[in-house]
Design goal:
The chain has 270 residues and is α/β, with parallel strands linked by helices. Helices cover 45% and strands 14% of the residues. The chain has nine helices and seven strands, in the order βαβαβαβαβαβαααβα. Helix 3 runs parallel beside helix 4. The model has no long low-confidence stretch (mean pLDDT 95). The structure holds NADP nicotinamide-adenine-dinucleotide phosphate.
């Protein structure tokens, strides 16, 4: 029996599909019945994933592309449409946090690099795929932002600003493309176990400190983020557009500091 979470026969393009969250999203889309065009720079990893998808009975198209290069993005989108016949879903997952450090010490070149990777890549994919989606009058765009784009991120200003720009673009296109039948949403992950966070997780003290500020007191997995992408890709979210879905174990729900129970336990109240 099919459900509104099925993606049977849908055609999806997923960036950042060579590892981490993007790989989990491409896999989850295929498991839900979609054919996928998988995009990243690491061709070997993409081919491995494509073989896995094809073994599971779905089509996979490997597209090697540097998402900081506009021309390569345009080529990837048009090759995906040619190979799959059309595009129903665009999942912008590629990104990262190459720079951390005090704001006053960041060189402009770091800002340019991070804005290009985290924001302009999403912008160019939307520019390249938008006319096709609008002309068909259907489609779902999903961009992976971050909880860092919702609040301040001290010493990580480039990620905060680049991911906030993804949120602003999502809300704007969500409203602008709604009447044309194209939905645009963002996923805002919290701390997730990928290569991106490997260095942090390798340091027990730092990892414990970070997780102490997470209400669920744990890391998230790429698969938990991917489930929300399946929801946003298909009919289960047919009324959802311009939304930002936080998948963050509660991080953004709580301002931090001791809870009322902590204070009572310490005898500081009453
Ligand atoms: N992990 C977290 O805690 C966390 C939290 C919030 C948001 N996010 C966001 O989630 C997304 C996925 O991150 P992740 O944690 O899964 O990181 P990851 O494991 O490091 O994967 C990053 C992906 O992006 C691709 N990528 C990076 N630069 C690229 C480029 N120039 N051209 C093409 N592809 C490129 C990588 O592929 P190649 O290297 O093969 O090109 C890889 O597939 C990112 O947008 C990240 O900002 C992650």
């Amino acid at each position: 029996m099919s459900t509104r979470f099925d993606l049977d026969g849908r055609k999806a393009l997923v960036t950042g599909a060579s590892r981490g969250i993007g790989r989990a999203v491409a896999r989850a889309f295929a498991q839900a019945g979609a054919d996928v065009a998988v995009v990243a720079r690491s061709t070997d990893e993409l081919q491995e994933l494509a073989a896995e998808v094809e073994r599971a009975g779905r089509r996979a198209v490997v597209l090697t592309c540097d998402v900081t290069e506009e021309e390569q993005i345009r080529d990837a989108v048009s090759e995906a449409i040619d190979a799959l016949g059309c595009l129903d879903v665009l999942a912008n997952v590629a990104g990262g946090t190459p720079t951390a450090g005090p704001f006053v010490e960041l060189p402009m070149v770091a800002w340019q690099r991070d804005m290009r990777l985290n924001f302009e890549s999403v912008l160019h994919f939307c520019r390249a795929a938008g006319p096709h989606l609008l002309q068909r009058g259907t489609g779902s765009v999903i961009s992976v932002s971050s909880v860092a784009g919702m609040a301040g991120a001290p010493s990580r200003s480039t990620i905060a600003v680049s991911k906030a720009a993804v949120i602003a673009l999502t809300r704007t296109l969500g409203a602008e493309w709604a009447a044309a039948g194209v939905r645009v949403n963002a996923i805002l992950p919290g701390w997730t176990t990928t290569a991106e966070t490997a260095v942090v997780r390798a340091n027990e003290q730092v990892s414990a400190g970070l997780i102490h500020a997470v209400p669920m007191r744990r890391w998230g997995t790429p698969e938990e983020i991917a489930d929300s992408a399946v929801y946003l890709a298909g009919d289960a979210s047919s009324m959802v557009t311009g939304s930002c879905l936080t998948i963050d174990a509660g991080v953004s729900a709580y301002v931090g500091g001791p809870t009322l129970l902590d204070l009572l336990a310490y005898g500081r109240l009453g």
